[in-house]
Design brief:
This protein is of the alpha/beta class and 274 residues long. It contains eight helices and ten strands. Helix 3 runs parallel beside helix 4 (117-134), helix 4 packs across helix 5 and helix 5 (148-158) packs parallel to helix 6. The longest helix has 22 residues, at 252-273.
């Protein structure tokens, strides 16, 4: 489908700066305003707040200020959450509406919440009236427990245009699914594309394999094909959000600098590609 396909960054572009890793956490973590500022500096158009920058901790006044700041700088916002109980999903749809987010990226599970497919489809169906009222579209992300085919089944079961998918380029490796398998089932319903690169290395004296991140364009991902498949097969406008699985360096200072370098180089790669 031809339409708007904007480039964006996420709080998962800056995992370390946002304090995602407790063992490599700066004294002062990145704020939502600072993440928007990064987007402006990088020349991208979208910011997605992931669950490592939880907007539920913000007051309504703070959420209003985030929206105003983004609008002043021409940045489109997307929200993100994990653990999609009916109550939390309703809360985050309201948060998304408050900040003017068109898309709410959703990871189904939490530490004490792992619904089966049927239960989660009921939760999604029950949320449809609120989605219609708010104008927010869900982007359910492929993660660890469900297969790509099951994510497609969620959309097909609910049967509503505001229930769609966030297609991540790497997450489904934990489900032993290739990128092509993910695209086969999920690309037609893509509302958001999580772009991150990866490498597979031998470790432990060759006695095992390790999947880890790479600066976009330097790893195993065929980023151009991944984007084109979602762009041409999706029935929605698709934002392309940069994420990162970078490993830490020896010091926090080096880690934060490499994270910034990867963000800059990866965004430049996306700009040339799209």
């Amino acid at each position: 489908m031809e339409g708007k396909h904007r480039i964006g960054i996420s709080s998962f572009t800056y995992c370390f700066a946002c304090g995602t890793r407790p063992d490599h956490k700066p004294e002062r973590v990145m704020t939502p305003h600072e993440l928007i500022g990064k987007a402006v500096a990088l020349g991208v158009q979208v910011v997605q707040f992931g669950d490592n920058m939880p907007l539920e901790k913000c007051s309504t006044d703070e959420l209003d200020m985030i929206r105003t700041y983004a609008e002043e700088h021409g940045i489109e916002l997307e929200a993100g959450m994990r653990k999609a109980t009916p109550e939390r999903l309703a809360e985050y749809i309201d948060i998304s509406k408050r900040i003017g987010a068109r898309v709410l990226r959703v990871i189904t599970d939490g530490p004490d919440f792992q619904p089966d497919l049927e239960e989660f489809c009921r939760i999604l169906s029950d949320a449809v009236p609120q989605l219609e009222e708010s104008g927010v579209c869900l982007g359910i992300e492929n993660h660890d427990r469900f297969s790509a085919q099951e994510y497609a089944a969620m959309v097909e079961t609910v049967g509503h245009p505001q229930v769609r998918l966030t297609v991540d380029s790497v997450n489904s490796l934990s489900h032993e699914e290739t990128v092509s398998e993910v695209l086969k089932y999920m690309a037609p319903y893509c509302i958001c594309l999580h772009m991150k690169d990866y490498v597979i290395k031998r470790y432990n004296g060759g006695g095992g394999l390790k999947v880890t991140g790479a600066c976009l364009g330097t790893g195993r991902l065929d980023a151009q094909n991944f984007y084109e498949e979602c762009r041409t097969r999706s029935d929605s406008d698709v934002n392309v959000i940069l994420e990162s699985w970078m490993e830490p360096c020896e010091t926090l200072e080096e880690t934060l600098q490499r994270e910034e370098d990867w963000a800059e180089k990866s965004v430049e790669y996306l700009k040339k590609m799209i």
